[in-house]
Amino acid sequence: MKAITILKEILLFIILFLIQVLLLNRITVFGYATPILYIYFTVKLPISRNRFYVIISGFLLGLITDIFLNTPGMNAAATTAAASFRPLILRMFYPKEEFEDFVPNIYESTPAFVKYVFAIVLVHQLILFAIESFTILNITSTLIRIGASSMLTIILILALDLFSFKNKK
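^ that's the sequence the OP posted. Answer follows.
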């Protein structure tokens, strides 16, 4: 790994964490949708990144978020699970012989990126809200929260990716 790549990842980690903790967790749309943008860090890691590195990074991001939001392990569990499922999800939407240091982005293959983001966000949100509700009594409310938060998060991630990276074509 190049030092500049690691510095970019650390900067992205810190920025997404701060945005999530200081701004986004205070936003709830219609009482159901909360944007969870910090998962973008896991989405943007290069495909060839070591699985252990991805899982540990996801766990640390979730753990630090939990510490600052006073949520007992919910974000750590959800982010670790999303990071664990990431290789499987990547294989579903990107060919194995993709570029070695390829970073999934909206410009290279838009349909694959949208599906990849949808799948990883859905895994994260399912686990996060299942742990948060920890009951099946309000299953309708929980499913609405999962769907609304997932859609809001996906829209934010796609918009952020659209404005973050220049078209290389």
